[in-house]
Structure formats: C-alpha cells, structure tokens
Specification:
Helices cover 87% and strands 0% of the residues. By secondary structure, it is an all-alpha fold. The protein folds into two domains: 1-45; 63-104. α1 packs across α3 and α2 packs antiparallel against α3 (34-44). The N and C termini lie far apart (93 Å).
Length: 104
Amino acid sequence: MVNEEILAGLKNALSRGYSLEKAMLSFINAGYNANEVREAATIISQPTFQQQISKQTQQAESQELQFQKLQPEKQQKSYKDLIYALIIAIAAITISIILIFSFL
C-alpha cells in the first residue's frame, strides 16, 4: 500500500512546479524509504493522476491571477478615497477662510 504522506507530498511538489525527480530526491534525502517514494512516484506518473495535478495547477494559477487583479483595484480605490478626503479638507479650509474674512 502506498504511503499517503509521500503521495501527498509529491503531488504538492508537482502542483508547485517541481519535477517529479527533484521531489523524489527531496523525500529520499529527508530519510523516507526509497522504495515507498518510488511506489508513490509510479502512481503519480499515471496519466489520470497527471491530469488531476494539471487541473489543480491551473486552478491555483487562476486563483493567483484573480488575486493579482484585485490588488490594483484596491489600490485605485484607496487613492480615490485619499483624493476625496483631500478635496473635503481643502473645501473645509476654504469655507473657514471665507467665514473668517466675512467677519472682519
């Protein structure tokens, strides 16, 4: 039976763009049983498993793109809020000056 921890770790490494060979070496160098690592790698190498990893990688990239798209919108909104606050402050100062001079 395959070691689920190794399988999940290899799957995670592949979804983050690492090669299967590098991921395997990382597990073996970390002290995992080489035969268990190879068994998990064999399962991951199956076409259906590769399609699943590819789909998860695409979903992660899509989520990252959506997050990046939101960042400029938030930044633009904060700039707009700052501009509105400055306009209100300038208007308040202007009104104060007008009131001061109207009483003189």
